[in-house]
Amino acid sequence: MDTVTPGKLNHFLCPMICVRKVQNKVIVAISDALSNRSCNRPIPSKHFLSNKNCWAPILTRRRLEPIGSRFLSCYRNSRLLILQSANRTGLEKHKVRILKQKMELLGINCHDSCIPGNYSNLFCPKCKGGRSIERSLSVHIVEDADFAMWRCYRTCCGWAGQAFADGRVTNEGMNIIFKVSSPRQITAEGIILEPIGEKLIAYFGDRMISEETLRRNSVMQMAGNQGIIAFTYRRNGVLIGCKYRTMEKNFWQDKGTEKWLYGLDDINEATEIVIVEGEIDKLSVEEAGFRNCVSVPGGAPQIVSTKDLPSWEMDKAYQYLWNCKEYLDKVSRIILATDGDVCGQALAEELARRLGKERCWLVQWPKKDHSSCFKDANEVLKCLGPNALREVIETAELYQVCTINQLI
Q1: Strand, coil or helix: what is 64?
Q2: Going by DSSP bridges, is the β-strand pair 333-337/293-295 parallel, antiparallel, or unpaired?
Q3: CB-count exposure of residue 196 (10 Å: 0-12, 13-18, 19+)
Q4: Where does the Toprim domain start and stop, copy by copy (predicted)?
Q5: Do the Cβ atoms of 377 and 383 come closer than 8 Å?
Q6: pLDDT tens, residue by residue, 13-56
């Protein structure tokens, strides 16, 4: 023991382990002892590997015996963990291969960057990325590789689906909102949210939405990730759902919760309300002075259905309207401020069919240039300001009059 030099790694032949392969591994056990897991008295961190006195209690045969025997146990456990990890990795790779094969059958060309836990932007096989040929299809394989999901974020496409690594059938279609049959209650702690940070406050600031508006609407962020916005859906102040959005405009919703209008508490006593197509538009309308505004939770349809209205039990795509029926029944005037594109117009028609066209008004988005109009509330807010957005909402026309004018 005279060769022990403070401040250096010292190698010894363990008296309990005489196998050459592991004789130097006793260093691990000694380090373990120094971290207070095998030494009875606490050792200050400032003495770690630097104070000669702190070595004395462990460099005896009495101390090395339990350390050596415990090391053999740790060594066996480590080998077992390595084997288990290798098995899990092999199973995960197998499931990823299955998922990619299923998606490729639908025309989704997955590449090597499509790995569990990541989001990949690919070309949508349905809309081909539109005129701009953008990578509009967001593909996500969950971390355990049990299933993959995708959605095209071009408004006029909305193709979405899920593929499973087991025998379950692949789901795919237009504007699917994934949900499970049994709703559950959630809490901010359960879904791990935290107050919105400076990065996202700046992001919203660029869109003319103030920090005060964000706080009042309980806009949060996913814990540990300042790039993921969490729009919390609340009823009577209680968290009932959550929708996530990245700064790259990828969306997903918390699974297993019923669908509601976003901002429900703001129309609790209202007789006139504004309905918009997205959470950011709801915040934008508030910046223009209207708090009595709600947003639909999902995307817009591509076209207006030619079928008769289904019963409320079968009206799955618009279940959020039926869930909010007691709020909407009290309203005498509804201003529809959906997006100005074809899909937004289709959504306005579907909402008016269900809410009653006689009590609906429709906003007319102002001209951007000689050939196009502004798309939505946030675009008007950013480009023209809150007063202009307020005027657009206040001058909305009776829905039936608008539709007649469009036909002329």
Answers
A1: helix
A2: unpaired
A3: buried
A4: 271-360
A5: no
A6: 544 444 444 444 443 333 333 344 444 444 444 443 334 444 33
